[in-house]
Here is the input.
Amino acid sequence: MKYIYTLLHILVIVGFYLMGEQLQDFFNIPLPGSIIGFLLLFTALMLKIYRLEWIESGAHFVLAFLPLYFIPATVGVIEYGKLFSGKGILLIPIVMASTFLAMASAGWVSQYAAKRKERSD
Amino acid sequence: MEFNLLAAFFATLTVATYFLTNIVYLRYRKTLLNPVLASTAILAIVLVMANVSYDTYMTGGSWVGTLLGPAVVALAIPLYKQRDLLFTNLIPVISGIVAGVTVGMASGVLFTQLFRFSEQLILTVLPKSLTTPVAMQVASNLGGIPSLAAVFVMVAGFTGYILGPSLLSWLHIDSAIGRGIGLGTSAHGMGTAKAFEYGQQEASMSSVAMTLSAVLGALLGPIAAWLLL
Here is the structure.
């Protein structure tokens, strides 16, 4: 019985995803369909239109294997051997440096804002 | 028929490789044995040795990749469960994420421009800090290369995972909010995995940051590309 619920939950998640794709297509929204589906589901949960218990076990199942779904895309690196053997290898330190800057600014700004909020509270 | 069998073979090979590398990772817990990195390396070597093209592999590989869309939708559940943490710290959380996403995109574009890379490559580097499914879709919407974008997302992820803690302590970013938002905004799921090692609060903050920066990045990506190119 538990498995049937999990399966139904997964179908609901796929339903939200397809709804997002349809909306994206229909209104030409500049957001991926998956993100629209995510926002729809989050809104439905916040407004208590849809309940957590009706989707939780399916979400756990889908998210348990999250890294797996990335693999076919990352295997695509074999197509770029030429790029990374030339000037393109520079893109790796560029991405690393830019990641450092993003982490430093996100971490510093949020910590600073939280400390200010604490003081004013 | 032969084509379908081949596709089923590549899909199965991908899933099997993932589960095998995951077992090895869970036993030894070494960063370099990360299942995504290890599976990618194994599959890449197998394909190159067997002289199989990426397009042929993707006849089946894309079956596995399709699951990314629903997985992004499912991320609404952990965010919903952490809504209290999110709403009590709304301003610090949002301002940190906005700063990180903006700086990450702008610096990525400016550095690649500095070294005179093509516009297609600039647009491919732009979404690197976003979680893979979103980064790939943003890259493809903007005119970048989705599969290469996924490679840069991995580079950003490993940078945060391996070098992030040293950077954070060097900059005296030592609060749960600062660490979590920093890791999740810049290094998505892999940053979040590192945040779990600090504690529950860091982990929650990081997953909130990963999800919100994905939404924000999908919105800001086209604007950043339009402003900077």
